[in-house]
Amino acid sequence: MSEEILRFVDTIHRDRQVDKEVIFTGIEMALVSAAQKRFDQEDGIEVNIDRESGDIRAHRDGEDFDPREALGRIAAGTGKQVLFQKIREAEREVIYREYIDRVGEIFNGTVASRKGGGLVITLGNRAEGFMPRSEQSSLENWNEGDRIKVVLKEVKLQSTRVQLLVSRGDEALVRRLFEQEIPEVSDFVVEIKAVAREAGNRTKIAVATLDTNVDCVGACIGVKGSRIRNVTDELNGEKIDVVRWNESVDVLIPEALKPAEIASLELDYDAMTANVYVTEDQQSLAIGRRGQNVRLASKLTGWELNICPITNEELQKLRDQGLEQRADDMFGDRLAKVTDDESATSAPVNPLDQLFEQPASTEAETAPAAEEFEEYEEGTVVMGLEDLPGVTEEIADRLIEAQIDSTEALLEAGVEGLAAIEGLDELSAKLILEKIQEIMESVDSEEE
């Protein structure tokens, strides 16, 4: 009997990963329950099992008794129920502790059965996950026995079991697949900033990198689309758009709305809404099938996007009439026109040579306000580096360190030189240079 107990404990421990002490305690409780049933006695019964030898010592009102001889068939059945209940409770705790810290991970499983439109997925020797219809992709149809990759979405500890909710429609699945297929993502060279997904239809994913030698979008797509194709195949042909992340919403929104080309933007930072102006031939692309493109772009950026069609004539009129107002909105209180009638007759000077403010000296700080601006020519626009689109205070400091802190220096650096600055990319560099050219043309037209 003692050897049988030890073998039983060892088998349950090995197969179900239940602690041996829990099993021994369960057997003792089962024997006590059976004895109470046999003797019709609630108190005064004690059973102990030696953990090393497996010997059983049973006492009833201080007297020893042999549980094997005292227990009948009904009492033994009661004890067996108590034992199995104890083992199930312990096994449930083991499964819960194993999976509770693995939410968001990807698992390989097997489709075990169908249940009310959902799928029961076998994840291991002891665990089963459930994937409801709402967490499945409309492109997929699974049969029993199929191998399947799922992401663990939720773990619930219930009274009788542990419910593992798994999904193939969650955004986390796309993240995990990118980590598996793209070494730069798994090595944290490329960072996934945001994911917007409508399972079975389309996914937009925004990526970024701090390594200027790495093209984050190209790294995710691969040569001739080889890397992104592996992810698409796993999702049964779901389309995936990879866009470049930018902290500036002026740059991010046009990126998120690709392949549509954006004509102009009108931003409301308080309400986080944007009116996106597009030409009529780009309207359908911007909205997408059943509004899918603009819906995903809105989710990706966190802004509410309103697509506004506009004709070429209206667009040109908007640009002509709203140039000064848009400049005021962008530069705020730091935009100023400095005029000086006396200096108007001096030698010609490019009005943007002193586009950016230089650090004031101690003497300048104490001088009257009129003397502070004597160096500026008529029509000069005074502004800071961080007033340019996509340039934060940190990026402005890096530009100053690189001695790219004047109009001439910015134009001389060009797209390639600006894109080499940490925090800027080619698109940001183009926007900066376009803004400088726009201001130069505006000032020149006013002089004429």
Can you give a write-up of this model?
The chain is 44% helix and 21% strand. With 448 residues, it is α+β, with helices and mostly antiparallel strands. The protein folds into four domains: 98 residues, N Utilization Substance Protein A, Chain:P, domain 4; 65 residues, OB fold (Dihydrolipoamide Acetyltransferase, E2P) (Beta Barrel); 65 residues, GMP Synthetase, Chain A, domain 3; 116 residues, DNA polymerase, domain 1, CATH 1.10.150. Strands 4-5-6-8-7 form a five-stranded mixed beta barrel. About 10% of the residues have low confidence.
Secondary structure elements and their pairing?
Layout: H1 2-16, H2 20-39, E1 45-49, E2 56-60, E3 63-64, H3 67-70, H4 73-99, E4 106-115, E5 118-122, E6 128-131, E7 147-157, E8 162-167, H5 171-181, H6 183-186, E9 190-198, E10 202-209, H7 216-221, H8 226-234, E11 239-244, H9 249-256, E12 264-268, E13 273-278, H10 280-287, H11 292-301, E14 304-309, H12 312-331, E15 336-338, H13 362-366, H14 369-372, E16 380-382, H15 393-401, H16 407-419, H17 426-447
Parallel strand pairs: 6-8, 10-11, 13-14
Antiparallel strand pairs: 1-2, 2-3, 4-5, 4-7, 5-6, 7-8, 9-10, 12-13, 15-16
